[in-house]
Each structure stands twice: as C-alpha cells, then as structure tokens.
Amino acid sequence: MSNKVDLTEVSKRLEQNLEDLFKNDRFQDLLNVMASGHHYSFHNTLLIASQKPDATMIRGFKHWQELGRHVSKGEKSIEILVPTFQKEIEQKLDAKTGEIIKDEQGDAQLEVRETISGYVFGKVFDVSQTSGKELPNVQDFVQNNLQSEESLSELYERFVNQVNTDKKNPLSIHEENHEQESYGGFYNHNTDKIVINTAVSKTTEEQFRVAIHEYAHGLLHNKANEMHQYPQGHKEAQAESAAYIVSKYYGLDTNLTSTGYIATWAQDLNVAKLAIREVQQVSSQMIEQINSLQSEKIKEFYQSIDPSKVKSELEEKLQINLKDTPTLQLVDPKNGLVLFAKVEENSKENHFILRTNTNRYLPLSDLESRYHVINVLENKNEIVKEFKKVEDFMKVTKIEDGKYAVTLEGGETTERTFTKKFEGQKFIQKTAIAQSLNTDRFLSITNVKETGHLQQKNEKLLNERVGKYVKEKSRKAEHQHNVSIGWHLMKNPLLQSKEALEKDIHSLNPHNNQTKELKEAVATKDKEQELEK
C-alpha cells in the first residue's frame, strides 16, 4: 500500500476518468460495476470501472488467500481509495455549551477520538484474476432462482404488495389494461401512483422491469424531492440507469434507451456526478428492498456455503468452542438492534445455529452478513469479565461532503449513513442504551449466580448513557427507573433532551401502567434534585 495520496490530484484523476467514460461510450461499464452487488463508494466505483469494467468481486491479495484463492501470475492490481485513521487525545467538551468538562479535581477530562487522517491507494484484484476454490456468490444464487417463472412471479407479487402496504411510503403500484396506449407503464408524481400497462407489459419479467423503472422515478422524482423539477430527459436517464442496474443484478432483460441524454451529462461533470450518485443510491436501496423479500432463501444460501468455515473462523476470533454453547451479544449496525443469542447444536444435521432472546433462529452465517459480536456474555457457566461497549468499536466518520457513515472496528463501513455528524453520534448513543437494556434482560434470566460485577457495571453504564442521550449532567437515578426511561427512548429516539422527555411522559395516558412507571421515574429524579439542593 502506498503513502497518503494528494486528494486534489485524485479529484482531477476521477473527473478525467468520468469524462473518458462518457466520451468513449463506456458509461454502461460504470453501471455494470454498480450492478455487481458490492457497496463501493462512488469514487471507488469510478476507479474500478476505469481500470477493470468487468469486475464483479474485489478483494485484497491476502484476503483472496484466506478464501482459498490465489492471484494469478502477471495480473495487474486495481487501485482503490482506502481511508486511514488516526487517534487523537482531546479535551471533552460539553455538547451544549462548548465548555471543557472537568473531573472532581478540576482537571480537564480527556477522550480518544478516531478520525480519518487521509487516504491511500490500496491494491486489490477481481475474482477473474484469481484461481483456486470455487466461491458461491449470492448474486448468482438469486439470478439462478429467478430463472423459474414461479419464483419470479412470487417475487414480483411480493414487491408490489410490500410497496402498496407500506404506510411510510406514499407510492403505490397498480396493474391496468390500456389497449389504446403504447407505453409499458407510467408514474404520476401528483398522486404517487405507478401504473403497469398489462396490454403492453404482458410477461412477468416485463411487468417487473417496468415496475422497477417507474419505482425509481417515484423515489427520485416525487414532489417532495427537488429532482422532480429536472428536465424530462434527465429524469428518464436516471430512472433507466437505476432500472438497468437493478435488472442486471437480478439477471433480468436489460436495455439502455436513454444513452442520448446520458451523453449530455458529460458537458457538465458536476451535474453528471450528482446524477450518477443519485442513481447509485436509489439502485442500492431497491436491491436491498427486493432482497429483503427473499431473505429466507438468501439465508439458506449463506448457511449452505461451508458452515464449518464460518464456525472455525468464529471460534478462532472469539477464542471459544461452540460445543460449549456460549451466549453471544450481537448488534445489527444498520439499525442499532442489540440482542443476545445462545449457540445451539443441531446434532442430526451436524451444524450450529443461534437462538435469540426473542426465540428466533439465526444461521451462523448471519454473523458475517448482518450482525457483529460485541461480547461473549456467558461461556462454560461463567459471565464475561472484560465487558466491551458499543462505543468501543462504533465510530462516525466523514466519507464525503455532507455525508457521514457509522464505521465498525477496523474501519469497516456499514450501510448506515447520515447527513450530519451529530445524527450518527446520536445513533451510536441510542445503540449503546440498547446494549445496556439487552444486558439487563440477559442478567434477569441467566442461571449463573456470580453476576454482581457485570450488574454493577451495566447499571452505571445505563445511567451514564441515558444521561448523555438526554443531555442531563451528573444523572443519578435508580436502575429500574433508567430501564423504564431507556425503553421509552428506544421507542421515541427524537426525545433528545431532559425537557423533551419529561414533556412527552406527562402527555401520555395517565391510566396506563407504563405511564405510571415513567412518571414515577421522573418524579423520583425531581425529588433527588431537591434533596441535593
């Protein structure tokens, strides 16, 4: 890996790459890389498309070795941008006043912050440049499954039903027969209604593709989005590009009818970059949404791909033996969900699964594709001694102007992004409260008797975390009251101040038992403050 790069020079290189793609009729190469199913940043997508437009799976040299494959002799590496991080010791500042926070001795409190210090060029290779063990690919699995007319029809029906029943999404999809018209479908931005013309779009594949195109219009060009004022050609190019990416990902028929207008984007690279970023964001959102409709099949696929490898890697990483059936604390970094799950062995089928505290069963592969292990809460009838906190491995980093991401330990970027840094920080704080509540629930059911040290630490953490979330200094409250308030904050994350929390609690139904508990928690806190005065 080379030394830090000059971002000014890199920016010039990226703009030149983008211009070359347009002028040499290679815009489709960029869309093909976006359709490969991997979440590259826009800049890295552009770099990959300019160097190896047929790339489908990118990994580093050592990572390929770990997967049982080796880079073929003479293959040229692909350069991508990789962030570097540095830790800085800073004085803690009060988020509200900006003043330095001091300890009991009057000394400034310090904290370690990890920030992006720059970028380097990392050398990676595509799977086509390697040889060795065959690697099952979820995109190939999905495409093969959709070769069946029955599977495709089922997925299309699920997609339409999900859109039409999602109360948070104003869009709706309807099939109508307009024999006198030549269009396959249309989107009405005044009513947010998508119409599939079954007189023209007759097969399931045609209807699905039209639905994807018009749905892209609905996401990009609705009345609430300023993009609805773009010229019609611009909007068609965006929707068609997004539909191309999604259709190619699922192995559906692809064509690109808006190449004429797409070419005009090259006349203004700023417009071009904005337009393509929007296409990438919406197509990724659509693929994620459609994949969620076949999550069970995808889970089965992941569980089928060498579960013994997942098991051995997990045991080595956590220094445990799954036959001891430990209990793991997990976090979904995308939505901040924290849960604990006990490892169970299925002796008949000779594999391990995870049974969560909500009695759901998860394949071990979910620990690669969705969840991150925070702690081994219990193992061999012993409770964890060194308790790892969410704040230890989740950070907010700036990935580009006006966009921040939640990153995990080691710099791995999750799909969770924000337009403001403090929004990401609040998300991590909320996830931290969820960890304390989950730990409290675990301690209430474990059969291990020696839980005092963890109970004491968790009670202190929950008190600090709730206080930090609602901006309440020196919070002192009973543990059970913090639990009640913590769960209320999970359901109402916008209550981010003590005043807003109390106002909301006093507006609730006074006859509800949960309301009584919350009011008691607030009243108890008020009494404690009076005594302190």
TrEMBL record:
<dbReference type="Pfam" id="PF08401">
    <property type="entry name" value="ArdcN"/>
</dbReference>
<protein>
    <submittedName>
        <fullName>Antirestriction protein ArdC</fullName>
    </submittedName>
</protein>
<dbReference type="GO" id="GO:0003697">
    <property type="term" value="F:single-stranded DNA binding"/>
</dbReference>
<feature type="domain" description="N-terminal">
    <location>
        <begin position="28"/>
        <end position="103"/>
    </location>
</feature>
<feature type="compositionally biased region" description="Basic and acidic residues">
    <location>
        <begin position="514"/>
        <end position="533"/>
    </location>
</feature>
<dbReference type="InterPro" id="IPR013610">
    <property type="entry name" value="ArdC_N"/>
</dbReference>
<feature type="region of interest" description="Disordered">
    <location>
        <begin position="504"/>
        <end position="533"/>
    </location>
</feature>
